[in-house]
Design a protein that fits this description.
0% strand, 6 helices, mainly alpha
Length: 201
């Protein structure tokens, strides 16, 4: 009697495991990359929105800072007294306005303006001191240099205004008492206000 040969079927589980591995490979190659790109795109969009909002908020502040300085200079008669409160306030408002325009245009002026603020604050420490003109002159020179560099870098059409502010600063005489040259100091603030006002339009 002849023997009947029974062939065993090949097991199916290696095929199932192979298909699962292939499916995972396809998922990681295509769908995982898409998820990363989508997340990156979302993050980028969020960043753009955040930067736009920050820029808008900063622009509002800039307008307020420049407007505050311009209004102070135009509305105040520049009555300087022994305590030098007017000069101190005008210089500090001018420094803040210059910082704001610098930030708005991505121009780095922090170091010079910080030094100018130190000189502005020094004039109120001792009313009897005779070096107030020195501190005012140092502050106005630093600020007018920043404004001139800012103008050259970002506002090429305002050269005449920047030069006028620089010359007004140079007119202040360190050998003369500050109270004896009120008109020169006030002229500098007027010219700086005109320049900043035009920069912020």
């Amino acid at each position: 009697m002849a023997e009947i040969k029974i062939e065993k079927k090949a097991p199916i589980w290696p095929w199932i495991v192979g298909l699962l591995i292939l499916a995972l490979a396809v998922y990681f190659l295509f769908f995982k990359d898409t998820a990363v790109v989508t997340d990156g795109t979302t993050a980028t969009n969020d960043t753009i929105v955040d930067q736009t909002e920050m820029q808008n908020n900063r622009d509002d502040t800039n307008l307020m800072g420049v407007a505050a300085f311009v209004a102070f200079v135009k509305n105040d008669d520049g009555n300087m007294t022994l305590d030098h409160e007017y000069s101190n306030e005008a210089l500090n408002k001018l420094i803040s306005a210059t910082e704001e325009v610098s930030a708005k245009t991505d121009f780095d002026s922090k170091m010079d303006l910080d030094k100018a603020r130190e000189h502005a604050d020094a004039i109120t420490k001792n009313p009897e001191a005779t070096d107030h003109a020195d501190h005012i002159k140092m502050a106005t020179d630093m600020i007018s240099t920043v404004l001139q560099n800012l103008q050259k870098a970002k506002f090429p059409n305002l050269q005449a205004e920047a030069d006028k502010a620089k010359m007004a600063s140079q007119a202040i005489n360190v050998k003369e008492l500050a109270l004896n040259q009120k008109e020169k100091i006030k002229a500098f603030f007027d010219d700086a206000a005109d320049l900043l006002d035009k920069m912020n339009r």
